[in-house]
Amino acid sequence: MSSQEFQAAYTSIYSTGTFLLQYLKEFRDGLRIQGDESQGLQSIENQINKALNALQDQKYQVAVIAAMKAGKSTFLNSIIGADVLASETAACTICRTDVRHIKEGETPRLLEYREGQREPVILVEGDAGEIQQKFLLRTREIREQGNPDNTTRFEIEHPIEAISELSSLTGFTLVDTPGPNEWESANFNINALKQTALEALRTCNAILFVLNYASYKDNAIADLFKDVVENRKDFIAESTGRIYFILNKIDQKTERDREIADVIKDLERELTGFGFRNPVIYPASSRQGLLAKLIQQEKATEKEIKDFEDFFSAKYAERDEKGRRVIPLPEEIAPRALQDSGILNIQETVIQRITQNSGWNLLTEVLAEIDKAAKAIEDTLNTEIKGWEMGIESLKQKVEEYRIRSEKATYKVESVKKVVEQEKQILIRGFSQGIDTFADRAKAQIASEIDKIAESRSAKSPKSKKTPLLLKPVEVKTNNGGFGQIVGEIGERLLGLIPPFGPLLGKAFKVTTSLLDGLSESIPEAFNTSVSEQIVDSEEFDPYIIRCKTKAEAEKIIKTINKFCPPYIQSWWIDTQDELVREGTNIRERLAIIIQEDIQEISDELSNYLGDALEVKLNINSIQFPSFDFPGIDARIKDVQVAVVEIERKKGKKSRCCDSDQVYYTDERVTKNRDFFEVNLRETLESINLKIDRQTFRNRDLLERVINKQVSTDFRSAEKQINDYIQRFQNDFDRVLKERKTKESEAPKILAKLEANKIKLNEYLSELNSIRQSLNSWKPVK
Question: What pLDDT score was predicted for residue 36?
Fold first, then answer.
């Protein structure tokens, strides 16, 4: 489905839904339905409005991930069609930046979102140049000052030229994410940046990896894919249809360099090795594309025109009749230069992919909701017609029978609710196991690092105290063991949904540097001093206690431990959280299907009875959970944090490590006129473990609340749909019975009006069917 076909289908669905709303109003006014009697039709109207709002409010997010100097900002600017994002030699993207499309003529703005503040700060309103300058200054401030305002993300509101002709994509947003080079910033939370990139992978409709043609094999590129792809290869493989690679800066190729096609083949092999199946790679010259767009739009500055002439115009030189080399004017060659830049091909392909997948799914879901509403109106019409056709005594009998049936259906819904509650508890326990596994392995890994220090010190000591090491084997529960008792009590329906977190999470628990090496390098005067010198009189040497000559040395050890532990703990948590979110979203949707099937069975029984009782064909009341109702677990769990990276020290005998983790040392110990300070690694580890346990408890509590809320929301949605269905027919029966008692003489006239309404409704049903057939012919191939 092309973007033009998507736009046409979008317009048709919105127009038909709008006409159906007007029809419903006229139908209700014609029957003079008011008050409680109109609740059923009001529910149908709400359903249509909700679907149309989803059509307009749908967000389409395209994430852009790149290493520094890959030309990411220039690439984004070329898609936007304005030089709005700053680019300089230093890393610019310190946190997520969303570029949200607005209509041409609206005032562009730069917004800053901060932790704990609901409303954003408006930094500037104006043109692209003003936004770029303010954005660059603000980025430098945050980088230099260490983010004192707790900025979480930026948002730029600006027209995006790539979708300017597609009103159906008004919710289009480009997501600029920090690259791995920027993760190394000393003044910013590197794990928060990693979390941003992983969140983009989970939630965005398309992901673009921008690579520098001149250095695509550099360590930065390897680090990028190592951080993003590691432990996620299955997920990446499932997402290949929305992942693209941009080989940028191809204009830097010289005659001595390899051909672009050969580089792309080489890159394909590299990416396949990282786990990307059949990677799609597009060559691009973002700078050429941006300048060409600006020239075409007559928005280029004198400097931008000169840059175009200096760097790109020469390749379009022609020979005149005398053989002289002539370079055409920039405006003459801009269209061809834009085409040659590859930018048009990239944006058209990405937009087409979005419309084929996310867009197609949205249109199908909205169409299903509107079609369901139209058929609900048809059911009401059939009930009205049959109610006026049958005898009044028979109608009274049907009304009473239906009341009894509906009470039984309501009771069955309550039974489903109890089962859902049980299944929800299984889900909560399953994910609590995942968090507990994280905590156990994180503590074990830190203990292992402490043990290595003690082992090293013991090997150097002639009087080592024979104390057991801290590290103990960690028992990891698996589904087959940990859930046996639960399944026996409740049932097995959800057992297959719980992922085996233990073995998978284990891959994330490793360190790239050693705490032992860090201490040896940072405190050689204290840590590498002969351990025999640290033994006083006949005292046995304890490898877990480090004695320092000065308080400054002790604090330096504390600082090294503090620098080592929290980033690793938080990084491990992010990997754990990423797995929980991805698996949790899948499980939640599958649980929603279980709820849907149970409620649908109740609805079908009621529908069959109504059809038989009235001797009319009723439409199936399909219970639905449209995807635009699914915020996903990620929407609420993303703010969970474990460990903090800042040092906070207090006066006295306690120095703080890992935020609230306390590293203990003795201020003074005098023996034989020798003063020294001690760092007790056992107490340090105990405080770190305490911190992890506290965070684990909070995270488990939050996850339980998230699952409780979202599963309950899914059930309430299904419950509301069946209750609306029950109540709608009850209202229809009561209304017809009431009118039969007072308007029996008008029966022929009323029946004629109802039949006319049905003919008009059939036109809308036919139009909806035609749209559905068109959408089915464009169904994307998985």
Answer: 64
